[in-house]
Amino acid sequence: MLAMRTRAETGSEAEALVAAKLASQGFAILGRNVRVGRLELDVIARRGSMIVVCEVRARSSARIAEPVESIDRAKIARIRRATAQWLTTAGLGGVSVRFDAASVVFDQDPPRIEYYEEAF
């Protein structure tokens, strides 16, 4: 039986799993839970001149819907706005940015990760 987690623990573990997946693909992890004003970017990674911003969604099960289905237009707009601000602050103008999404479902051990490149 899988251990019960708080929502924050589930989210943090999901982000760690996604960051590890990106790192295994040669990406340098630039940040997790990066605050940009009142906004947050879950995982920021870089490989060469490409920056990947990944929105991570986690659920204890996918009985109702896949977690990434909860990323709506308003959330996408906030992620894009936060990314633009973060790039400016980090002095990274002119780099390529890819917006990915990941679902982590904790209904088995190990958790199931679905990764979507260029999700939005």
TrEMBL record:
It comes from the Bacteria. InterPro entries: Restrct_endonuc-II-like, tRNA_endonuc-like_dom_sf, UPF0102_YraN-like. Coiled coil: none annotated. Pfam families: UPF0102 (PF02021). One of its GO terms (molecular function) is nucleic acid binding. Belongs to the UPF0102 family. This is UPF0102 protein DB32_004213. It comes from Sandaracinus amylolyticus.
